[in-house]
């Protein structure tokens, strides 16, 4: 049935493309530029502010001219000029409409010395109108966030500004947003552009369960401050004139430009923050200065954050059937002892209490130089920034035989209890193993980008657009070092009351240094570098008043390199004349770990302690131990060319195009170095039908692709891979393909209230999975017991969903609500990565069936308030026999609450207050489809108080 649906989907795309192409010769009228407004009778000052909100502009006036005047009710569809004519009809005032707003002045000539005060309309209503206009002016189904949303929606970085968009979900790290998913898809399937060119910058997670040192194609949004950006456009339906490569959508980011505001502008916003877990203050600073001179403008903006973070929780090494040996089981029943020795129970391994602490500095700076006249627009943007910090993690856990608490020949198991899934949810051990782990790690992501763009109106019919850019990002872990200690204690592990957060008790004083022995250490270094070079040239030709033709080409070079060096399991008892007991370390190297709410134990100054054993903690190469290295190098060339034909009718508009894309991908760490080569034709159609002045229907049909994931280009087995399994590189690997169908119904009920509902379907082909590789000349030698595996485009998948959003502002009131929700369903067959066989069909990675957000707000010219909640449903991260311990892993549902308050003392001063994670939400990661506990953490509530000055 699914194959028939997929085939039908493709046929509809082709037929619709041909049919609408024939319609482009039909006559057309001018596009409707009216806006529906409802402004109740009141003061002229408030009415003009409402008009500015409705049309998303600012206005200037001498306040003494308008403060004592009133107006009648204005309702209906009007242009900006018509609305102003009505409001000023009985006054002695007139107006002048400029690029970004309008000026109010007496009908008599204004004296040059008369002061006009600019009233900058930047409230919530303005934000909604601005975002709505950005969305309406785009030719495809999309969502938009304006600069005011970005800075006023509670956020600590760019990712969190996106979570109130329908169908957008984020993942979090230490309480902050990090990765972004569009329509529930894998973050790697989202293309990110910044100032018109594709970009990539990676950070990582300090947690093993969230995958440290992860190289992927997803942009980590926690790297750059939100204050540097004026617009985020989430494009969900693809059009041929856009850069291809994101089958779930494109996030187009744009930094602030000087000509966005005429004249001199200066903004500075210092903020102080507090987190109830760290108990320390945080600081945030942002500033902007810009000026314009006739056609020229220069802008510089900076933003800096310095904060501490702390996540704490409980986690396991996953659960496994383990046959217990060498333990005294005499206190148990005969049946319990038999099940334990036979390995019938699924036992949680390495039950840890953990603390992740970090200091973090985030810095971003943007320089923009802009020139614009009636025919030419030149814009040079340079963006630079870094995210760096020191991370420490401390764990307390049983680390005995097979990562259980058992010390062979010493431990007694006094009592156990299993649940209906045969999982050991309670156990009490005497004379059991207890261990600690202390880790020190430094990280830094550096980001630089320069983009030069040109728009030239050659004549009445021809326009040229050009972009040339380069982006570099570098992620370094100069050191990541661990020290392990071990001791003996009675241990009780209990999951019965709190399945995702074990209650673990120890009989010994864990802060007594005499109970701990030094065991071993690990030393590691890592770095990953990415670079994009990009060029794009577009031509636009207005054939006549009815038809516009666009065509152009783009070229991209992407390169990524990674190097990793490790020295693991350096056992201290093999190094003579060194401390073997914790008590033998200098007292300054040992301190108490008091941050965890359940237990306290001792932590070690890892780097200083390693030096006592003759280990250089900052240079792996200087140590006389076995070094394990891994290096990867990928280079990609992309070339694209497109044409797009557009027509606008009185009641409808259509945009029909096709793109040709050619790719070459070479992995220099997978011999032979045969490049992956492919070329694609990507047809697109996007159309709108104007039902009336308030209702609009949109539709889109398109084909798009996403490149193979970076780990697919350096294919390797997992830690549990059988020794008989061999992996080879597939030089015929192709990209993921997506055939997309989108429809949307949009409505504007008033100047500020709007409603939107969207439906979409994606037919995903050439989905990459692990399969058995065919034997051919040059294949590695195999035996009857060995298997040859590779990654191939062997699967198909599907996804469909619905999205709804409502912005409603209560008439004659300053109150309003914003509600959005999305439903997603999509499945793919997962394969066993150890033998290449199909296992089962499950949800697509990262797909949450339901995501939703709601916000209630109060918006007054002097004061506004927001309270928002963001819900994300359960989702899996990966599935299949990746490890012996689980068939899938993912995250449980979460609901985050945020709030913000802004009070305007004047047009220049604003007091800001923001609160994040008010419920101190628990991030619960599960292991296996039976939802076993894997990792559960909380990060505390965060508050910021700031004062903003704008001139």
UniProtKB/TrEMBL annotation:
Gene Ontology CC annotations of this record: cell outer membrane
The keyword ATP-binding belongs to this UniProt entry's keyword annotation: no
BP terms from Gene Ontology: iron ion transport
Transmembrane segments: 12-30
Domain Secretin/TonB short N-terminal per the UniProt entry, residue ranges: 57-107
Keywords, alphabetical: Cell outer membrane, Ion transport, Iron, Iron transport, Membrane, Receptor, TonB box, Transmembrane, Transmembrane helix, Transport
Subcellular location field: Cell outer membrane
Protein family membership: Belongs to the TonB-dependent receptor family.
Record-given protein name: TonB-dependent receptor
Originating organism: Pseudoalteromonas carrageenovora IAM 12662
């Amino acid at each position: 049935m699914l194959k028939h649906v997929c085939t039908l989907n493709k046929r509809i795309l082709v037929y619709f493309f041909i049919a609408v192409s024939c319609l482009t010769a039909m006559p057309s009228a001018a596009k409707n530029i009216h806006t529906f407004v409802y402004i109740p009778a009141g003061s002229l000052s408030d009415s003009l502010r409402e008009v500015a909100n409705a049309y998303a502009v600012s206005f200037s006036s001498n306040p003494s001219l308008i403060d004592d005047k009133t107006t009648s009710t204005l309702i209906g569809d009007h242009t900006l000029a018509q609305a102003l004519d009505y409001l000023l009809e009985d006054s002695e005032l007139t107006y002048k409409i400029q690029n970004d707003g309008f000026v109010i002045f007496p009908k008599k000539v204004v004296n040059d010395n008369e002061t006009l005060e600019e009233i900058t309309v930047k409230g919530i209503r303005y934000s909604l109108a601005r975002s709505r206009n950005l969305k309406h002016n785009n030719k495809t189904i999309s969502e938009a966030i304006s600069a005011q949303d970005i800075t006023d929606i509670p956020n600590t970085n760019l990712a969190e500004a996106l979570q109130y968009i329908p169908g957008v979900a984020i993942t979090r790290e230490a309480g902050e947003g990090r990765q972004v998913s569009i329509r529930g898809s894998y973050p790697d399937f989202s293309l990110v552009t910044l100032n018109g060119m594709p970009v990539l910058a990676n950070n990582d997670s300090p947690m093993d369960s969230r995958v440290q040192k992860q190289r992927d194609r997803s942009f980590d949004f926690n790297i750059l401050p939100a204050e540097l950006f004026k617009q985020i456009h989430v494009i969900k339906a693809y059009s041929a004139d856009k850069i291809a490569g994101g089958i779930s959508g494109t996030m187009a980011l744009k930094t602030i430009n000087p000509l966005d505001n005429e004249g001199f502008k200066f903004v500075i916003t210092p903020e102080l923050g507090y987190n109830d877990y760290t108990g320390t203050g945080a600081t945030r600073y942002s500033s902007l200065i810009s000026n314009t001179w006739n056609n020229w403008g220069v802008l510089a903006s900076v933003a800096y954050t310095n904060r501490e973070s702390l996540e704490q929780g409980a986690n396991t090494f996953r659960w496994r059937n383990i046959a217990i040996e060498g333990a005294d089981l005499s206190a148990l029943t005969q049946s319990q002892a038999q099940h334990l020795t036979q390995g019938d129970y699924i036992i949680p391994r390495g039950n840890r209490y953990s603390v992740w602490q970090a200091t973090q500095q985030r810095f971003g700076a943007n320089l923009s130089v802009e020139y614009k006249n009636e025919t030419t627009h030149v814009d040079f943007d340079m963006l630079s920034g870094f995210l760096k910090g020191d991370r420490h993690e401390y764990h307390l856990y049983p680390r005995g035989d097979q990562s259980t608490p058992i010390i062979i020949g010493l431990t007694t198991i006094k009592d156990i209890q299993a649940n209906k899934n045969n999982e050991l949810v309670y156990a009490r051990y005497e004379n059991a193993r207890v261990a600690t782990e202390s880790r020190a790690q430094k990280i830094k992501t550096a980001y630089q980008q320069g983009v030069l763009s040109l728009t030239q109106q050659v004549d009445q019919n021809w326009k040229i657009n050009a972009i040339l850019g380069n982006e570099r990002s570098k992620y370094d872990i100069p050191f990541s070092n661990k020290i392990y200690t071990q001791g003996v204690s009675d241990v009780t592990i209990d999951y019965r009351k709190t399945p995702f957060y074990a209650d673990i008790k120890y009989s010994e004083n864990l802060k007594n240094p005499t109970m701990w022995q030094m065991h071993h250490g690990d030393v590691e270094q890592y770095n990953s570098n990415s670079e994009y070079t990009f060029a794009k040239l577009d031509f636009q030709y207005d054939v006549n008043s009815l038809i516009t033709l666009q065509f152009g080409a783009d070229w991209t070079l992407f390169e990524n390199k990674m190097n990793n060096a490790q020295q693991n399991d350096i056992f201290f008892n093999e190094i003579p004349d060194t401390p073997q007991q914790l008590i033998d370390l200098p007292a300054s190297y040992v301190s108490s770990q008091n941050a965890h709410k359940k237990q306290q134990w001792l932590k070690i100054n890892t780097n200083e302690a390693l030096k006592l054993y003759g280990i250089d903690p900052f240079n792996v190469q200087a140590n006389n131990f076995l070094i394990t290295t891994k290096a990867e190098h990928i280079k990609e060339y992309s070339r694209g060319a497109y044409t797009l034909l557009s027509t606008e009718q009185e009641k409808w508009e259509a945009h029909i195009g096709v793109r040709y894309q050619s790719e070459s991908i070479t992995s220099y760490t997978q011999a032979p170095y045969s490049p992956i080569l492919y070329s694609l034709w990507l047809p697109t159609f996007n159309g709108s039908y104007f039902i009336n002045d308030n209702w609009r229907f949109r539709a889109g049909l398109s084909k798009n692709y996403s490149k193979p994931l970076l780990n697919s280009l350096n294919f390797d087995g997992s830690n549990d891979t059988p020794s008989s399994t061999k992996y080879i590189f597939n030089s015929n690997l192709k990209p993921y393909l997506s055939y997309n169908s989108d429809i949307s119904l949009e409505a504007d009920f008033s100047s500020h209230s709007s409603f939107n509902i969207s439906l979409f379907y994606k037919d995903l082909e050439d989905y990459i999975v692990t399969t058995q590789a065919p034997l051919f000349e040059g294949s590695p030698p195999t035996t009857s017991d060995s298997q040859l595996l590779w990654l191939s485009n062997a699967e198909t998948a599907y996804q469909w969903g619905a999205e709804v959003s409502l912005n409603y502002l209560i008439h004659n009131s300053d109150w309003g609500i914003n509600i959005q929700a999305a439903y997603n369903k999509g499945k793919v067959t997962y394969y066993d990565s150890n033998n290449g066989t199909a296992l089962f069909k499950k949800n697509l990675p990262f797909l949450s069936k339901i995501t939703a957000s709601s916000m209630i707000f109060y918006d007054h010219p002097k004061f506004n308030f927001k309270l928002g909640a963001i819900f994300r449903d359960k989702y899996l991260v990966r599935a299949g026999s990746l490890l012996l311990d689980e068939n899938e892993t993912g995250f449980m549902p979460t609901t985050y609450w945020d709030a913000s308050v802004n009070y305007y003392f004047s047009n220049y001063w604003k007091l800001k207050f923001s609160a994040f994670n008010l419920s101190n939400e628990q991030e619960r990661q599960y292991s296996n489809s039976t939802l076993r506990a894997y990792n559960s953490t909380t990060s505390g509530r965060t508050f910021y108080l700031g004062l903003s000055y704008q001139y």
